[in-house]
Amino acid sequence: MPFRFLYRPSGMRPVIVIPSFRGAFRLQRLLESVLLYDPAAYSSANWIVVEDPSDERSTADFRKVLTGYPAVFRKLPAWSNMHGAAMAAFEFAAEVYDPEWVIYLGDDILVTPNALSSMISFLTLNKLETVGLAQFPYWNAHELCQADNHSDRQGPGLLRTKEDMYSQDPSWLLDVPRNPHWEGEGYARPYINVNGVGFAARLSNYLDVGGFAHGTWCLDESIAVRTWLNGPLGVVCLPGPCLVHYFGAASVSGTPPHDLHTEERWAVAMGMSKAESARRMYEKLEQRKAAILAETKAAQYFSPGAFV
User: Fold this and answer.
1) pTM of the prediction?
2) CA 135 to chain CA mean position, Å
């Protein structure tokens, strides 16, 4: 059945934001995978790419890659160590589109069939009164390699090395299975945090709890902590078709030296250690678990041919 679209005013469509530093090549592969395997996502969401800048050549590469794609491009005036680019992307989404949901994507991912539409459907078909953040299902590329990756999430051997996710024919994405870790019993369930691979954030919750923490590289973990501890909503993980994550692209992109990844900077930014953050989050998760599950078990989920 061909995919059908229900027109939604701009504010009712999610906004997909992609912060990127020297990631034009990765962004190109991501956008191509969406065009091949989830083109509905280009019509059912608004798209924003924000460059955390390095040099003019990098900016020119981004502009070239985005030619022909329905994405708004913004360049920050100075390097911000990614969390600044993420903050700017959310601020721009709020200013221009005022959406209910903002979907954050890392630039080092590829999309399997309907992976984005699955999340978009979950967000737009349901009221979700208990949910502030929703995590995409995903595989890390090394978990899909033929060699043992020493992970408890070993998937099928679709790749020789994780670099092959970019170099071999994209049709390999058709063979990526669902990940049992995220699949659960087939409905969204409470989860402790989100990962920068990709997640959805209710914009009002993001603003109410204080947004991403400035001063730590762990922007994904920081918004999860603030969602559980600073407001009434929770975090869920979604079952369904997966994103594939290169894992570690930011570390090999040649960012200027910094210490924002350290436990010490986390403690300064968040006012507590990571261990204490986790302890408090699990307490809130247990308190809200029943209400969240009652909502997600009754929720509607993606099916091909449904309105999104």
Assistant:
1) 0.91
2) 7
Please report the sign of the dihedral spanned by the C-alpha atoms of residue 114, residue 32, residue 43, residue 205: positive
- Annotate 198-209 with DSSP letters as a single string: EEEEEHHHHHHH
For residue 225, which of 266, 174, 183, 179 has the smallest C-alpha distance? 266
Q: Which residues does residue 51 pair with via DSSP β-bridges, in sequence order?
A: 20, 75
- Residue 275's H or E segment, with its range, is helix 274-297
CA dist 273 → 97, 154, 213, 268 (Å): 36, 30, 14, 9
Instruction: Give residue 71's domain range.
Output: 12-252+259-297
CA triplet 207, 211, 216: central angle to 5 degrees?
Answer: 170
State the residue for tokens 């390999």.
172
Question: Is 4 part of a structural domain of the chain?
Answer: no
Structural contact between residues 205 and 233, judged by C-beta atoms closer than 8 angstroms: yes
What is the per-residue pLDDT across 170-193, written as a single tens digit (0 to 9) for each? 999 999 999 999 999 999 999 999
Residue 1 inside a domain? The answer is no
Q: What is the residue-wise DSSP string for 145-190?
A: BSS--S-TT-----BSSTTHHHHS-GGGGGGPPPPHHHHTTSS-EE
Q: What mean pLDDT is predicted for residues 101-110?
A: 97
Taking phi over 0 as left and psi of -120 to 50 as alpha, with beta for the rest, 68 belongs to left
Nearest one of 132, 107, 77 to 285, comparing CA atoms: 132
Q: Work out whether the CA dihedral 216, 219, 223, 225 comes out positive or negative.
A: negative
Number of folded domains in the chain? Answer: 1
Q: What is the domain-level CATH number for residue 108?
A: 3.90.550.10
Q: Tell me the β-bridge partners of 202.
A: 101
Residue 205 lies in a domain: yes
Give domain status of residue 284, yes or no: yes
